[in-house]
Amino acid sequence: MMAARFLLRRAVPALRHARCYADAPAAQMSFTFASPTQVFFKEANVKQIDVPTLTGAFGILPAHVPTLQVLRPGVVTVFNDDGSSAKYFVSSGSVTVNADSSVQLLAEEAVPLDSLDLAVSPCYAVISTQRIIGKLLQAWLCSPLFTLQYIPDFHNNRTQDCLEYNRGLFNEVKSV
Amino acid sequence: MFARTSAAVFLPQCGQVRSMATLKDITLRLKSIKNIQKITKSMKMVSAAKYSRAERSLKSARVYGTSAMALYEKAEIKAPEDKNKHVIIGVSSDRGLCGAIHSSVAKAIKSEIAKLSGAGKEVMIVNVGDKLRGLLYRTHGKHILINCKEVGRKPPTFTDASVIATELLDSGYEFDQGSIIYNRFRSVISYKTDEKPLFSIDTVASSENMGIYDDIDADVLRNYQEFALVNIIYFGMKESTTSEQSARMTAMDGASKNASEIIEKLTMTFNRTRQAVITKELIEIISGAAALD
């Protein structure tokens, strides 16, 4: 039982089936997802959120361990209580999971994936994200045909050769 | 301010010894005040348009800003008392004619500085907006770290906030804690000068409640903090512009009303003066004619 609770608190998506235990957390997640210009979710109750962070992608369920993370460009997936999911492309930002199971996902720029027209042009000129303090990532996504710009490394200011990175990112976004 | 400009046009009445204003004087004054009223009315309409736009974007900015500060509130991060370096970010704008917007922020900054200097701490100020610089540089010039101009002409964006945050972090002033002073928008007719705390990376890292947050290394925390700083500045700027536009709307509305009052009174005076002149001429003519008889 203790082990189950521990697993529960570590909330990895593969272990979602463990939640059928009687001591499933009664804590509801209060999820706020906003960009400076738009609010997507405000203190909503959702089942799970998948976020891409600098240290890796992970999923957040209610009663997740409190943590602070910084986002990298990628797709955020929000799974609602009724099973439907919504996907958003975020450029950068931060995610906070507090002890009371409230989650604040603040993205510098975020668009719903539906509004990106992948069929018409393989190049989604997404939003130019601004460099924040030279530290956050600026992502111009283009198809591999175009020479892409660079993605400054988050805190080291060194530029990476990003065609490979972007190709990978492009494929990841196309596949979700 | 409005009263002062009108006093420059016409001498204030000084007791009983007043020469009768000629018709030409009154006409001139009437014309100038009518022009001023047109200007204030149009300024009011422009501010109303800008205000409605600002208020709409404030709705989402508010959610964004309060979420950004949620960590500090939930983890109850408090700066230790013995830290000495403070920074105050005062958010205002470049343009005047908006009531007490700039002076209230400047007043709050001055009282903060007095309090902190009295406790022996070192304070530096970041001015967002030229008006604040004008109000503060004479008395607190040595505390000013950064001045920002060209604020208030266009609605503030996240980029502007990030530029300010970059400047602050690159300035080399290692502050331990600080606060941002801005005008929080309450309603069309009211705003309140508010203060929100800022924390440095070290303060947050060494705060006791941070232990419950899992899996944080120094780099992630630093990036998170810098992002949070930009968020707080963005939030302050958004609230500030909305308050400023609503205050300007109110101020210009009041100015137009005052101008119409003055126009009414002046028109009365003008008519009475005109009738007096006509009566005087009639009397002269009649008495002249009577003298001939």
TrEMBL record, chain A:
Belongs to the ATPase epsilon chain family. Keywords: ATP synthesis, CF(1), Hydrogen ion transport, Ion transport, Membrane, Mitochondrion, Mitochondrion inner membrane, Transit peptide, Transport. Component of the ATP synthase complex composed at least of ATP5F1A/subunit alpha, ATP5F1B/subunit beta, ATP5MC1/subunit c (homooctomer), MT-ATP6/subunit a, MT-ATP8/subunit 8, ATP5ME/subunit e, ATP5MF/subunit f, ATP5MG/subunit g, ATP5MK/subunit k, ATP5MJ/subunit j, ATP5F1C/subunit gamma, ATP5F1D/subunit delta, ATP5F1E/subunit epsilon, ATP5PF/subunit F6, ATP5PB/subunit b, ATP5PD/subunit d, ATP5PO/subunit OSCP. The keyword Disulfide bond does not apply. It comes from the Eukaryota. Residues 29-110 form the ATP synthase F1 complex delta/epsilon subunit N-terminal domain. This is ATP synthase F(1) complex subunit delta, mitochondrial. It comes from Cyprinus carpio carpio. It is found in: Mitochondrion inner membrane. GO terms for molecular function: proton-transporting ATP synthase activity, rotational mechanism. InterPro entries: ATP_synth_F1_dsu/esu, ATP_synth_F1_dsu/esu_N, ATPsynth_dsu/esu_N. PANTHER family: ATP SYNTHASE DELTA/EPSILON CHAIN, ATP SYNTHASE SUBUNIT DELTA, MITOCHONDRIAL.
From TrEMBL, chain B:
CDD domains: F1-ATPase_gamma. Coiled coil: none annotated. One of its GO terms (cellular component) is proton-transporting ATP synthase complex. The keyword Amino-acid biosynthesis does not apply. The keyword Transport applies. Pfam families: ATP-synt. PROSITE patterns: ATPASE_GAMMA. PANTHER family: ATP SYNTHASE GAMMA CHAIN (PTHR11693), ATP SYNTHASE SUBUNIT GAMMA, MITOCHONDRIAL (PTHR11693:SF22). F-type ATPases have 2 components, CF(1) - the catalytic core - and CF(0) - the membrane proton channel. CF(1) and CF(0) have multiple subunits. Belongs to the ATPase gamma chain family. This is ATP synthase subunit gamma.
